[in-house]
Structure formats: C-alpha cells, structure tokens
Design a protein that fits this description.
Elements lengths: L3 H14 L4 E4 L2 E6 L2 E2 L7 H10 L7 E2 L10 E8 L2 E8 L2 E8 L2 H15 L5 H4 L2
Parallel strand pairs: 4-5
Antiparallel strand pairs: 1-2, 2-3, 5-6, 6-7
Length: 129
C-alpha cells in the first residue's frame, strides 16, 4: 500500500505526463477530457479525431469515416451503419473484431479502448471509467 505522500507524488507525476488533467473525487482518480470525466457520454467522432491528433497517432493507422482510405495492413476503423456505429480492425482488407454500438459516444470509447489495447497505450487514459 502506498503512503499518502507516495500516492501524491505518483499522482503529480501522472498529471505532468498526461495531456488530460486528473481529478480526485471521493477517493477515485479520474482523467478529465474537456471538462468531462470518466466515459464520455457526449464524445463524438470530432472529439475522437482531436484526441488522436493531440496524441500524434499516425493518420494512416485509423479511419473514422468512409472517405478516409485504408492504406496499411492493420487499420482501426469506426463507421456509421444502419445498425449503429461499428468499431473494427481492418486487417489486410478484412474487417475483424467487429462490434456494433447504439450510439456514437459508446463507439468512440470502444475505439479508444481497442486502439489503446493493441496499438498505442497512451490512448487508454481517455477511455478510463
């Protein structure tokens, strides 16, 4: 278990390394994205694009709409379909690990989780609950 001083030092370091501010409320540490904490109920694809740009993720590694070409062997995709928002990985021309979400915010969070898990860990901080 960390002492209070060690915890505060760790928290200060996390805050310096993170591009999102950190908030503590009732003993829970949350990362804040544009004033919203936890899973972002109102995060949209425009917000997602800003996060990816801020974290300097190569634009060839993701595709956020049909107009963005898939040019690499592995590309993370989000698409609107009749069933909702689809999050998937395009691997050598095949869509794998497809998931459908009823709303844009859920799909954006899932996209960040998926890309953070397999591609770039710096994205995980935006999808923490």
């Amino acid at each position: 278990m960390l002492t209070h001083g060690s915890f505060m030092m760790l928290l200060a370091r996390m805050n310096r390394l993170s591009k999102s501010p950190i908030e503590i409320m009732d003993g829970v540490v949350s990362l804040i994205f544009k004033g919203r904490k936890g899973l972002h109920e109102d995060m949209g694809i425009k917000d997602l694009r800003k996060v990816l740009q801020n974290e300097q993720i190569d634009t060839h590694c993701y595709s956020l709409d049909e107009s963005e070409p898939i040019t690499l062997e592995i590309v993370y995709c989000i698409r609107y379909s009749a069933d909702g928002y689809e999050v998937s990985i395009n691997e050598r021309g095949r869509f794998v690990d497809r998931r459908i979400f009823p709303d844009e915010a859920s799909a954006c969070c899932a996209f960040l989780n998926l890309m953070g898990k397999y591609h770039n860990e710096c994205l995980r901080k935006y999808a923490l609950a």
